[in-house]
Design brief:
Radius of gyration: 17 Å
Order of helices and strands: HEEEEEEEEHHE
Number of strands: 9
Strand order of the largest sheet: 4-3-6-9
Distance between the termini: 23 Å
Structural class: alpha+beta
Largest sheet: 4 strands, antiparallel
């Protein structure tokens, strides 16, 4: 099964289960999600996303594949199906998918959001480290940024190197 089909079916099931297609639905929210599938035979990575991009680093450059701008479920969900993207894998490529919790965290000197461009820049700055050390660097940077502020959301990052 193609991963964009998974997102399409999940979208319909969430809407149906929560009765979001009915007038006066209790829940109107959706969820952000992304899926990566690696085909080792063809040496390709396939990706689909609902509001969450795929970020990758190749040859010292950071790239991103935009997600569809529609959550899974909710009143603003995707009506025409989620897209699928494919990338040829190259040795030393690094891929990252993540929730909005890190970029949305308030902190710093002015208690502002960390923001996605800063997050991508930080990923690039630590990309020469082993993945295990990148995890530690991400945790330290998050705590440094958050300072005395409360954590506002779940924080999930997943990264891997080819």
């Amino acid at each position: 099964m193609e991963h964009n089909v998974i997102l399409n079916k999940l979208n319909l099931k969430v809407i149906d289960s929560l009765k979001q297609d009915k007038e006066g639905a209790d829940s109107k929210d959706g969820m952000d999600i992304s899926i990566c599938v690696i085909d080792q035979k063809s040496n390709k990575l396939s990706y689909s996303g609902a509001c969450r991009p795929l970020v990758y680093i190749r040859n010292g450059q950071i790239e991103k594949i935009k997600a569809d701008p529609y959550p899974i479920g909710g009143i603003n969900s995707c009506k025409n199906g989620y897209q699928s993207f494919s990338i040829d894998l190259k040795k030393e490529d690094q891929f990252y998918i993540f929730s909005d919790g890190y970029p949305d965290q308030f902190g710093g000197e002015k208690a502002k959001k960390y923001m996605t461009p800063r997050f991508r820049s930080f990923l690039l700055s630590i990309s020469n480290q082993p993945m295990k050390n990148q995890k530690i660097s991400l945790e330290k940077e998050f705590k440094r940024w958050m300072g005395e502020e409360e954590q506002v959301d779940d924080v999930i990052e997943m990264g891997f190197r080819v």
